[in-house]
Amino acid sequence: MKQNFDITIIGGGAAGIMAAISAKQHHPDARIVILDQTFALGRKILVSGSGRCNLTNSNLKKTPEKYYNCDNINFVKKVFTQFDYLAIVNFFEDELGLDLAEDKKTKAGKIFPKTNEAKTVVTLLVDYLERLGVEIILNFKCHDIKQVSNKNFAIINDKGDEVLSDKIILACGGKTYPALGSDGSGFTLATALGHYLTPLIPAAVPLVTKNVLSQEAQGVKLEAQITINKHTETGDILFTKYGLSGSAILNISREASTALNRDHKNQIKASLNFLIGKNKQEVKKILTQRWKKRPEQTILKSLIGLLPERVATGILKICNLGFNENVKDITSSKVDLLCESLTNLEIIIIDTRGWNEAEFTAGGINVNEVKLGTLESKIIDNLYLCGEMLDVDGPIGGYNLSWAWSSGWTAGKCL
Q1: Residues spanned by the domain of 92
Q2: Is the pTM of the predicted complex or chain greater than 0.85?
Q3: Cα separation of 157 and 34, whole Å?
């Protein structure tokens, strides 16, 4: 098989779909194709936001660049200037006819489709591609990209089939959820063409820990603070059989993943504060006041009003305090130890749960090798990169999908 196209997008995820839509809108006479190595487009979109598809985040209305990790923050700013939060919302509401709503429960600015179904988003995106006349070739696993004189590029799959194209947008995604097609193969294509790859690490990923509470409180979730390397996150923390998960863990996991995977440390220390915003002395004052009112109460019962019972049980074991010990009999040193454990409990992180459970990829093609504002490669003319291919990542909550929409739109526009 040999086919000719004006523009080829490699990768049919969020960034690739948006790049194709933008390319067709800005270049309506061009013959455009999406090549995807799986059997359907948008498979990772289907699992985003726990299947609800957290499309974007209202916090991106102002200074969106501050939410992203990138060596050149002006690079991120330039992309969002071309397709910002309002443009994203208008696209889905006006172009696709998808009603959106902000999740008021979390107050985190998360924007979801009112259907609460990611499938709705994918269905409407694919329908729009078809109406625009964008061609789609599925089960095409790109094996190599060669520069040729007559059509700029020859894209060759693992069966030897060729697609010839004037321009290419690499939108292959990162390494997370490899079973859904995001297996890191795009980085192999980019580096073979001369690009530098910032080492890839899993981000927004549960953590494996040496942690007594994970056994004592397995399955318990509470709101707390976790600190790693002076970086603190507040949010849900879920104790699991292997360690820790929850929103606070996912958002701080990049710190741990960097230390373990890039700095090659065997372990890293973290601390938990179960009484958000309180220090050791403030907690001691709170406990003293509670105990004065109920001096005959057991230490375990006195903590249940502050913590889930199994968490309280685990902390008391760590402090070597008897559950049935009356609060009036606790020594000053034991009180200090308890308050320290409640506000600064040290845990040891030894690993992440890896690519199969990570939500995002940190690392990628260095943005300084891509032209500011157009996303065209500085190394290969007519080659563009977007989405997770680039070394840009943000926290959970719709920020990474927003980057996919915005960078995909920019690449398609600037061809």
Answers
A1: 2-202+360-413
A2: yes
A3: 14
